[in-house]
Amino acid sequence: MTEEIIIAGFGGQGVLSMGKIIAYSGLMQDMEVSWMPSYGPEMRGGTANVTVIISSERISSPILRRFDTAIILNQQSLDKFENSVKPGGILIYDGNGITRHPVRKDITIYRIDAAEEASRMKSQKTFNMIVLGGYLKIKPLISIENVVKGLKKSLPERHHKLIPENEAALKRGMEIIRRLN
Amino acid sequence: MKGNEAIAEAAIRAGADAYFGYPITPQSEILEYLMAANPHERTGMVVLQAESEVAAINMVYGGAGCGKKVMTSSSSPGISLKQEGISYIAGAQLPCLIVNVVRGGPGLGTIQPAQSDYFQAVKGGGHGDYHLIVLAPASVQEMADFVELAFDLAFKYRNPAMILSDGAIGQMMEKVYLKPQKQRSTEVPAWATTGKTKERERNIITSLDLDPYAQEQHLLRLQEKYREIERNEVRFEEIMVDDAEFLLVAYGTSARVCQKTLQLARAEGIKAGLLRPITLYPFPYERIRSLASHMKIIVSVEMSMGQMVEDVKLAVNGQVPVYHFGRMGGVITEPEEVLEYLKTKI
After folding, report:
1. Which of B121, B146, B171 is the last residue in one of the domains?
2. Sequence-ordered list of residues with C-beta below 8 angstroms from that of B170, at least 6 positions apart, any chain
3. A7, A72, B187, B250: least buried by Cβ within 10 Å?
């Protein structure tokens, strides 16, 4: 089993940390993982993206052109990565601020209005966890239990009190994700 | 763990005595991690942010002269600044570890990954006839493992060792197994300048000899040492070479990219294999020479305009065509691109 994921959006949306949580969760399940961030001009304002691979085998290239899953959080990233999804792969996007929606017919497209939901839940910072919950609904490669363990590992201790709120966000994400095609 | 963090933690665990550095992207996490880890309390290791790269390498020179296990790290433009010190350390035959997490050049270039410092690392870099022992990690695990290996080789041969990595491996996170903590060594090498005692002659650490005949003898001894390193320390990994007709040669990040290329190629029935040099100096000339006899073509894949390809050509010595392929300027080569290139040549 190998899952190759691209997560892309604005800096500050929690793109890199969502990738980190997936990687740590994979680690908790004794899988091979790689997390390759964009650290360049993107990180200094603008778009951010990260390639995460989790696999039961040794991981070859951490740099990829095609992905099994794209998790897209803004218009620029949608424009850039829609065509990078492998045929038969999946694309998950947040509808907030999207004017040109994905059009491909050979992939499965899911929409999750996580930004809207996070603001409804008055918990904007758990936005990325809502998205992650949606993703795990579609691809239950890692258990919520291991995600919580991954969270504990990637969050500084002073933030551990926020874990229940994040867990609630994950579960909400699982409920609100919907398939478009 | 990030590759940069793995280097830092491995240095503490290898029992390093000191780190001297100056921040530069994409390797600042090494210094940051060491500062936060405060190894002085754990092992007594000194971590110091110098006022410049030049200061840092000369602190390394001083620490190494005292027989200590010392290191520095930087990225391409910073490594250029360190070259004078590196040449002096090589001339004075001192062990130390220099980490280069390469970014694109020339000049300030870019902060993105590249492999364009190959020539600088393996052919000298500073002035004079010398070599560094150069290790090229291709994973976060090797970032950690090569720290101790580099120190061991550096002390075995009294020669500076370099870990030649790049921004991709420095910044990426992977699973890593760390070795248990080693105590810092209390042994003092016989050549170290730690204060003359009555029992022995003065130890002199210098790279200068004004008598040309004496200097020539010194250089011949260096050359002897390099030949010994070339005999003993060549390291490489081979993947799917046994039945291969097309050989890729790549190190570091490019070697990882090429592993994916192999999978894609094999799925299309193209028999490609990979030789990954682990030591860039000493370079696996002999192995590439013997593999070349049963290959149709060889492609050196590097994130540069083609540097290692010159060593591959020297190894192959005209037996079969040798090509270079790679992106540069901070663009990372994609596995598919390598395959597309390979197809144009077969």
Report:
1. B171
2. B2, B3, B4, B26, B27, B29, B101, B113, B143
3. B187
